[in-house]
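Hey all, sorry for the wall of text incoming. These are the two entities for the joint prediction.
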Amino acid sequence: MTLNILTLNFAQAISRLGEYLSYGFIRNALIVTVLVSVSAALLGVVLVLKRYSLLGDGLSHVAFGAAAIAATLGILDLEMITLPVTILAAVILLTLSGKKIMGDAAVAIISAGALAVGYTIMKVGGGEANLGGDVCTALFGSQEILASDTTDIVIIATITALLIVLTVIFRHKLFSLTLDERVARATGTKTGLYNLAIAVVTATVIVIGMKLAGALLISSLIIFPAMSAMRLCKSFKLSLLLSPIIAAIGALLGVLLSIILETPVGATVAAVDILIYVITHIIKGKS
Amino acid sequence: MSKTLIRVNSITLSYDGVNVIENLSFDICEGDYLCIIGENGSGKSTLLNAILGLKRPTLGKIELCGIKRREIGVLTQQNPVSKDFPALVCEVVESGCLNRAKNGLFINKSAKKTAFENMERLGVTSIARHPYRDLSGGQRQRVALARALSAAEKMLILDEPVTSLDAKTTYDIYSLIHDLNRRHKMTVVTVTHDIDAALKNGTKILRINKDSVFFGTVDEYLRLDEAKAYVDADHKQNGDDIPFGEGGFRYMGGAK
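and here's what came out:
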């Protein structure tokens, strides 16, 4: 009996899925989610190995603060504000943590500060009816991803393609930098320049990923696929290859599940990524 | 007189605002095997960091005359590569060749060949496809040295290369470096606690202590009273039937 209901629900869900997939906007959402996830996962390998995971998390909070201010000022194109502010914050945080003056405390201060300031400004300046909803959207991502148009896709596809090309070209340098930055610097690599580039890329990925997963969840798109790939792979090269593949699978499954379960897209994708990570743990054991 | 590669010109180095080295000058010349010795906290590591360009002198300067940074191979003390770091042994060694490529981005065939030769030299060819994170301390050090050798076109800079290694690995590594220096004219700079090995392998000694500095050839150093004390103590120590250990290098002559 219960089984019957379950099968019935399942059949309904599948038919609903088929129906949704025939809509262009759903396909657009799928493409955008996969592209954003792939970018985030590629970057993730480098961030995790350089132990910058926390930095990525902090920056997304800064992006939230910047978005709050921009929204209050009535600026429609939020990226115009969030991108430069987040890049600037990335550079500042990198310089501070590089000098070991404050280290992770600097990240904590800036990320918590940005959340507090952002929320306060939203409350003071906005005064709109649906403030709670706006905050929730900014923190956890919005369904706006379903309204992605061709321009969005072109922009995000360009960024993703660029990121893939850069990663392929600089893969050996990235390896040296993440394996032992001191030796890299001592043997003539301009580590400061590379770190700056990584910071700029991180800020960009966070800003384009914010719409999908929000300030609090974008980190999981960056970190989990990378962690899963690193657990499964013995080599750096394979990890770099597998991380975006895992992310793409997670994104596809996540979007489809969110349709079936009627859950928020960003959070569902993040949950699937976490599930994949747990599975890799079980497969690989504790070794 | 051989060519000067690095000129250390009256530098003062400070650590946390306290001067650890004051007004130090010396030259590193082509073909030198320079051993930097001194007590803990005497500023050896700080000096090495300054030579590596990782620390700026408060006063004075360090000039690279006949060498570029990318021609130097560096082996620092075991850096704690995280347990998650995915890297094959061959990837680690090959990354040492990166600076040999023109643009420093790709590893070409000749670089791969260099990497392979150095893996052979250190006896790690059989584990080339093993994950670096699973290796023991001794194996890691062999791999790290193979990487440094792959990068070293003219000079090798080593920080305590044999710390906490077993006698066999210690012996192998000392023999290899000695051979590179004498036969292949590789310039070697090493920070070491192993004075016995320094006196046997090195050509020059830089001894830094809080109150005095010595820089000169090994022969000159051996004429100092403090060196005699070391040599005597060393003989006594080795009388206590420790065939290998840090003094193990003395047996090198017969082994090869």
